[in-house]
Amino acid sequence: MTSPPMIDGAFARWLASRAGQALLDLRTEMGFADTGALKSAGDKVSHDLIRTELAKWRPGDTVLSEEDEGSRLAWAAEVNTGAVSRLTSDRVWIIDPLDGTREFSEEGRSDWAVHVALWARNAPSPHGLVAGAVGLPAQHRVLGTDYPPAYPPMTVEAATAGERKIRLAASRSRPPVFLTDLAEDVGAHLVPMGSAGAKIAAVVTGEVDAYIHAGGQYEWDSAAPVAVATATGLHASRIDGSALKYNEADPRLPDLLVCRKDLANRLLAALQRHSG
Q1: Over 80: is that where the pLDDT of 195 sits?
Q2: Coil, helix or strand at residue 220
Q3: What residues does 212 pair with on adjacent strands?
Q4: Which residue ranges run through the membrane (predicted)?
Q5: From CA 53, how far away is CA 15, in angstroms rounded?
Q6: Contact 141/67 with Cβ under 8 angstroms?
Q7: pLDDT tens track for 135-177
Q8: Sign of the CA dihedral running 162, 168, 174, 178
Q9: Per-position b or e across 45-62, b if 16+ CB within 10 A of its CB
């Protein structure tokens, strides 16, 4: 096998693409009769592949993955003991090997993703993300910071003039309870979608105009999509307008707004009215 690209952004794309193909192959091999088994196998296959390649090609870097044993709770022990290497590391890969296991296990669904992001201590941006890729395997595409898509074509004037409503990506299973009222307030309609990566990717490509989440997430749920979104020129923040931050001691990152910059002030103001 030939060596992967050396540049981090291209490497993230390569890694997301390889993991995505492995997941497509697994879907074909296992079918959809046992969704629980398919979900578990998908998480493991993608995680093991990404971890193996990172150990081989980026051995000096640290990794924060959803599928590492104890990832959701280990931060407390790590902080208490001072043993956590990622908190002192200069480079940390933040990965979600399979974002949207529910959609992955449903035949015909394509709104699931693979997330690969790199956080660096010396990054110029507040979020610290210097490279990232979102693989959308069932859509046969990878969005990456190495070749970010063009800024999606739409102006706020077009939306407010009534040419069409603002399109808000929403969870198909657990949208924030206030989102319906907020959508009515700003003249928007909700577009149900699966994984967080698929929803942010839809903002990046212009299929929707914004994604608001306030139901609880972790860093791996948004790191790669946010890296791509901000490389594209989109707005990304917490729902109170503060900066998203990654490789924090506590990896919980419960809310975010990703949207076109020309909608940011309007949506943040609406969030102040409805998300309290």
Answers
A1: yes
A2: helix
A3: 257
A4: none
A5: 8
A6: no
A7: 999 999 999 999 999 888 664 545 554 556 899 998 877 777 8
A8: negative
A9: bbbebbbebbeeebeebb
Architecture of domain 156-275: 3-Layer(aba) Sandwich (3.40)
Strands 210-213, 166-171: pairing is parallel
Task: Please list, residue by residue across 121-160, b when 16 or more beta carbons sit within 10 angstroms of its beta carbon and e when fewer do.
Answer: eeeeeebbbbbbbbbbbbbeebbbbbebbeebebebeebe
CATH class belonging to 8-144: alpha beta
Contact 148, 228 (CB under 8 A): yes
Residues flagged as binding site: 66, 96, 98-99, 221
The band of 3, judged by pLDDT with boundaries at 50, 70 and 90, is confident
**Cβ(211)–Cβ(168) below 8 Å:** yes
Helix (H, G, I), strand (E, B) or coil at 155: coil
Q: Using CA atoms in the order 60, 200, 192, 196, what is the torsion angle rounded to 10 degrees? A: 20
Q: Residue 197: enclosing H or E segment and its boundaries?
A: helix 196-205
Sign (positive or negative) of CA dihedral 196, 201, 207, 208: positive
Domain boundaries of the chain, sorted by first residue: 8-144, 156-275
Q: Tens digit of pLDDT for each residue in 102-145?
A: 999 999 999 999 999 999 999 999 999 999 999 999 999 999 99
SS3 content of the chain, % helix, strand, coil (to 5): 40, 20, 35
Binding site for Mg(2+): what residues are annotated?
66, 96, 98-99, 221
